[in-house]
Amino acid sequence: MKVCIISNGEFKDSNYLKKAIHECDVVICADGGANIAYKLGVVPNYIVGDLDSADDKIIDYYLQKGVTIEKHPTMKDETDSQLATIKAIEIGANEIVYLAMIGNRFDHSLANLSLLLYLLNRKIKGKILSENNEVYLIDDFIELEGKSGDVVSLIPYSADVRGIYTEGLFYPLFGQDMSLEMPYGISNVFTDNKIKIKINSGYLLVIKSKD
After folding, report:
1. Secondary structure of the chain in the HEC alphabet?
2. Which residues of the chain have pLDDT under 70?
3. Is 198 exposed, middle or buried (0-12, 13-18, 19+ CB in 10 A)?
4. Whole-angstrom distance, CA of residue 82 vs CA of residue 178
5. Is this prediction's pTM over 0.85?
């Protein structure tokens, strides 16, 4: 089951959101993500969070639409996005796509990366998607499609990433290591319409970007 989680971050272009949502089986709004879903004309399956960011009128609208709303206390340890992730796993997700997860709050944006690790450790596919970025976290292998000239960056998410191998990139790697304190994998470039990245150990962020 592919689940889409809409958070309360920034977005400018609604087309990528609609396309991603259309490809998912279930839609979960993390609190203020309900406001974004409403603007898009999307009726989610669940709204999860303390509801301090969601518009009351929008919540009432979705209640009338039969949306399942799970309200949590404001005084809680988890973020709304974490709660939405737990819900997605609870209903059987084997893949989660995060939308509107990047915004003005760098602390929230940074914390959201940990959700990819949470999924990875549970053998669940995950990615963070925005207008300009696709963010993945790997501990083994990934294959991505694109086109020649597309930009991808490889950034350690552990103290060290050992044995990095790539195919289809302008700056190839043949088993080199990379450390968190000195990443050198920024702004590599596709030379084909498909790339492959493999690592022997550690955690590696793979970020496909455009300006």
Report:
1. CEEEEECCCCCCCHHHHHHHHHCCCEEEEECCHHHHHHHHCCCCCEEEECCCCCCHHHHHHHHHCCCEEEECCCCCCCCHHHHHHHHHHHCCCCEEEEECCCCCCHHHHHHHHHHHHHHHCCCCEEEEECCCEEEEEECCEEEEECCCCCEEEEEECCCEEEEEEEECECCCCEEEEEECCECCEEEEEECCCEEEEEEEECCEEEEEECC
2. none
3. middle
4. 29
5. yes
